[in-house]
Specification:
The chain is about 55% helix and about 10% strand. By secondary structure, the protein is mainly alpha-helical.
Length: about 130
């Protein structure tokens, strides 16, 4: 098969090989399904406060991993580097606020009296 014009500007057709469906299927299964399965299992083993702080920190961990592996460059003196660091800072502040917020109830509804996650505790109207 051939594709459209190449991005090199030469106008030659781009030769596209067959799609590696087997490798793509394995990567999709392990990268999406197994990842989410293990993530949710891990969340079930921790407290709601830790889970609430962990979720907004995922972009921070991803960014730090990308910088460590060299796929992302950060130059604080450049505009793009400063914005990347600002985004990381906002994620960290957001995680701290959501995990330590002691304000009013945002949504009215039912609250559990039991401490077992709802299995067997009586429910009362808030």
């Amino acid at each position: 098969r051939t594709g459209g014009p190449s991005s090199s500007g030469g106008g030659e057709p781009v030769v596209v090989g067959p799609t590696p469906w087997r490798a793509l299927s394995v990567l999709a299964f392990t990268g999406i399904f197994v990842n989410q399965l293990l993530f949710l299992k891990g969340l079930s083993l921790t407290s709601p406060v830790v889970a609430g702080a962990l979720q907004p920190c995922i972009p921070v961990f991803t960014f730090l991993l990308a910088v460590t592996l060299g796929t992302e460059r950060v130059s604080p003196r450049r505009k793009d580097g400063a914005l990347k660091l600002l985004g990381v800072l906002l994620c960290v502040v957001g995680a701290m606020v959501t995990s330590t917020w002691q304000g009013d109830v945002v949504f009215e509804g039912f609250e559990n009296d039991g401490d077992d996650g709802g299995a067997g505790g009586s429910r009362r109207r808030v």
